[in-house]
Amino acid sequence: MTVYDVELTLLEDTLRKTMTTRSGADLDTALTELGWHDMLTEMSDLAVPMVFRLLGETGAHGPFLNDVVLAEAGLPVGGAVRLPYTGGSWVLWDRTDKATAPQYSGTLDSELPLQVVDAGSPVPLAAGRRALGWWLTGTSRAMLSRARTHALGRAQFGRPVAAFQAVRHRLAETLVGIEGAEATLAAATDDLGSLLAKAAAGQAALTTARHCQQVLGGIGFTAEHDLHRHIRRALVLDGLLGSARELTREAGATIRAEGSAPRLVQL
Amino acid sequence: MNVTEFRAGLRAWLEDNDLSAGPDHSLDGQVAQLARVRGALYDAGWMRYGWPTEVGGVGGPAVLRAVLGEEVATRDLAEPGIYSMIEVLAPTMISYARPELAAEMVPLLLSGREQWCQGFSEPGSGSDLASLTTRADPRGDGNWVINGQKVWTSLAQYSTRCVLLTRTAPGHGGITAFFVDMNTPGITVRPLRTMHGVDEFAEVYFDDVVVPEDRMLGRPGDGWRVAMDLLPHERSTCFWHRIAYLFTRLDRLLTQSDTATSDDGDLGAAYLALHTARCRSHATQRRLADGAQLGPETSIDKVLLATAEQRLFDTARDLLPGVLELGENEWRTEFLYSRAATIYGGTAEIQRNIIARRLLDLGAE
Question: Among A58, A107, B16, B177, which one is most buried in terms of CB atoms within 10 A?
Answer without folding.
Answer: B177
